[in-house]
Amino acid sequence: MPSGLGWVDFAEDDRQKMLEVVRLFHESETRDELGLGVIRDAFSDYLFPGTSTVQTRARYFLVVPWIYMSLESKEVPSSKVYHRASSIERKLIYTLLEAGETDGVIGRVSKDKLQRLPSNIYWSGMGTLGIRLFPRGQQQYHDYLDLFYYLKKARRKENEEDEGEVFSSNNWHPGLPAPPPGFPEEAALDLTREEALYLQERILVTHPQSLMADLVKEREFIDADYIWEHSIIQRTSADNINHVTQAMNFSDMLHGAALLYNLMLSRKLENEEYISDYQRMMDDWAERIEARWSELQDWHREMDSFWELPAITASNIKRPIRSFIESWLAVLFQEGPGAIPASVTARNLILDREVKLKRNRSRLENQRALELWNGASGTIKLEYRWSNAKIIVRDIIKGLNSEE
Fold first, then answer.
1. Residue 321 located in a structural domain
2. Could you tell me if residue 216 is inside a domain?
3. How far is CA 151 from the centre of its chain?
């Protein structure tokens, strides 16, 4: 029987997460080699709803609806809407670049070869923030438009005697600001004050208790390498403080597991330069952990509270993931961070985890897979999408402080 490859029709959120996983697979710094992505995403979605690791600028949340609403107004049929929309999105790359935009232009490098268009990148986030009201995926939206036009005409016919009755699209939020004059032939990525107010309102209405909501209420943008280093922590709710603290501790503690994995690969490859680099990184990590040792011990003793966090309970964490995390922490607190690079127990734990996740593709077991390793896999400490979220926050605050 011939074999084949297909795409399962998941819900749009699942599809977007799968696309993001595929993208991350090609980025050595953020690969989820030990299967911790579900924890990372749980905190990310809770703290920064509507964001993703491939978003670049806030105005795309408006650019995409503007494109589609324009096509709806022309009643572009379902069979043609994807090609019309993608053509506009690709032309927009050149429009933005010619206007002098460089920061955050999607397709700035790949241009016509761009594979993931802004509409696909922002589709899930637009739904999360209530900008997109159509409840299903992008392809389903395209397929639905012919029926939408039919219903629109039928409604108009029903109410042709009532001049006050106007059919409005239920695919997009009715409060969307109008596109600027000349769009899409003329475009920029800075938000006007009206647009920034709208995006702020969408975040405050749909996720009023989130950290993202508190961030977009700030009067000025404050940068920080990690969200737990941001001064917002002094002004947010106890629940957000608790989530950020728990996320920080998890990031610090599990960073050692990622570094040990890379050190083990370096040793197996017998690459002395890599071995030296990862040993140094592990020494630095151990020093940072030891500086917080007493605080982290208290956190570990109350580990049940971690698993009971709303962000975690909502994510349905599977038992093997929880077992690995608890086993890693047990070894770490029993042997101490400085002993981890030489710990047989820790190394066996990492080996067992990778083999269970990858089976015959495990780099620690498969020589060919090891030889294809590029020297870095998931070595960056978890920051829970903060580097992307802060760009959205920056754009909104800048827009709020702008003159019309």
1. yes
2. yes
3. 36
Rounded Cα gap, residues 370 and 372, in angstroms: 5
User: Which DSSP symbol is given to 51?
Assistant: -
Buried-exposed string 317-326: b where 16+ CB fall within 10 A, e elsewhere: eeeebeebbe
Do 210 and 46 form a contact (C-beta atoms < 8 A)?
A: yes
Task: Indicate whether 65 and 206 sit together in one domain.
Answer: yes
Q: Check whether residue 274 and residue 218 sit in a common domain.
A: no
Question: Which position has the higher pLDDT, 321 or 10?
Answer: 321
Band of residue 159 on the pLDDT scale cut at 50, 70, 90:
low
Of the residues 235, 254, 269, the one at which a domain ends: 235
Q: Do the Cβ atoms of 195 and 62 come closer than 8 Å?
A: yes
Residues 200, 134 within the same domain: yes
Amino acid at 93: I
User: Residue 221: its pLDDT value, please?
Assistant: 96
pLDDT mean over 51-64:
97
DSSP state of 337: G
Rg (CA), the chain: 24
Q: Which helix (H) or strand (E) holds 260?
A: helix 238-269
Q: What is the DSSP letter of 77?
A: -
Range of the domain at 160: 60-235
**Residue 29: pLDDT over 50:** no
pTM here? 0.88
CA distances to 286, 293, 304, 336, 370 from 333, rounded to whole Å, are: 12, 9, 16, 5, 30
Q: What is the C-alpha to C-alpha distance for residues 31 and 46, in angstroms, rounded to an integer?
A: 21
Distance CA 129, CA 207 (A): 8
Q: Which amino acid is at 291?
A: A
In angstroms, the first-to-last Cα distance of the chain is: 65
Position 252 pLDDT exceeds 70: yes
377 found inside a domain: no
C-alpha pair distances (Å), 334 with each of 306, 339, 349 = 20, 10, 14
- Interior CA angle at 166 toward 165 and 168, to 5°? 140
